[in-house]
Amino acid sequence: MNKTIITYLILLAFVFLSCKPKQNMVYMSQHNMEQEIAQAKFQGLHIQESDVLLILVSALDENAVKPFNLNTVNRVGSEAPNGVNQYVQPSEYLVNEEGYINFPVLGNVYAKGMTQVQLKNDLESRLKRYLTDPLVTITLKNFNVSVLGEVKNPGQKESATQKLNIFQALSLAGDMTDFGNRTKVKLIRTGDDGTDQVINLDMSRSDIVNSPYYYMKQNDVLYVEPDQNKQIQANSNPNRALTFQIIGSVLTAAAIVISLTR
């Protein structure tokens, strides 16, 4: 009887020693009530090199506005003269290495570093020389982020909205796995000078919502580090898990045999 109890205790010891309790499973679990009052304010995305902008110019005089829109499409319509009318689609503009877009009539217009609102106001101001009450609409076509590491669906993600925070970015990747370390998440971002910045984020802290990096920017990379359990598993002998299984099976069989023969 004593031998059986000892055997079971050894087996239980192996189980408990081979498993480490998972910590920091909850987002924003570390509360700071003073910081929770404030929250990061979305300032709008800043235009970067290689961005593709969709720009549409409109005004009261449809004929006068045509030179400023590259995509004018004929469409058949019963109410239009001769059964054909025209409508315009936003034109694509690539921000080159120097930060300029080549805009019809206006020529090179500097866009890098501006928000979409700032570029809109700049273009409308320039167009007032040619148009009455011009209206410019700008949309960023290539708003993509990458979410890598310990997430369920890693890869490049496209967002329908430009106001995307780090939790929403994680949701696009199916959230973290159970092995994701919520205290060690890296945000890789290209600065205005072209160099990459690496920012360490602790997503277990509630004041993360007040971080200047709470909102994602185009081409950001979010990398979730594996926790200590996953790192040990990855760096250990690949036969380690099988060895523990064999030892556990042998101990279980020995305990059964002892119990039957006592």
From TrEMBL:
Q: Gene3D superfamilies per the record?
A: Outer membrane lipoprotein wza domain like
Keyword Zinc-finger carried by entry: no
Q: Name one GO cellular component term.
A: cell outer membrane
Name all Polysaccharide export protein N-terminal domain ranges.
Answer: 45-140
User: What Pfam families does the record tag this protein with?
Assistant: Poly_export, SLBB_2
Localization, UniProt:
Cell outer membrane
Report membrane topology.
Answer: Multi-pass membrane protein
Entry keywords, A to Z? Cell outer membrane, Ion transport, Lipoprotein, Membrane, Palmitate, Polysaccharide transport, Porin, Signal, Sugar transport, Transmembrane, Transmembrane beta strand, Transmembrane helix, Transport
Q: Which biological process terms from the Gene Ontology are attached to this UniProt entry?
A: monoatomic ion transport
Asked if the keyword Transmembrane belongs to this entry, the reply reads: yes
Question: Where's the SLBB domain?
Answer: 145-224
According to the record, the segments passing through the membrane are: 242-261
Q: Which domain of life is it from?
A: Bacteria
The molecular function terms of the Gene Ontology recorded here are: polysaccharide transmembrane transporter activity; porin activity
What InterPro entries does this protein map onto?
Answer: Poly_export (IPR049712), Poly_export_N (IPR003715), SLBB_dom (IPR054765)
Q: Which residues form a coiled coil?
A: none
UniProt lists the family membership as follows:
Belongs to the BexD/CtrA/VexA family.
Q: What is this protein called?
A: Sugar transporter
Q: Which organism is it from?
A: Chryseobacterium piperi
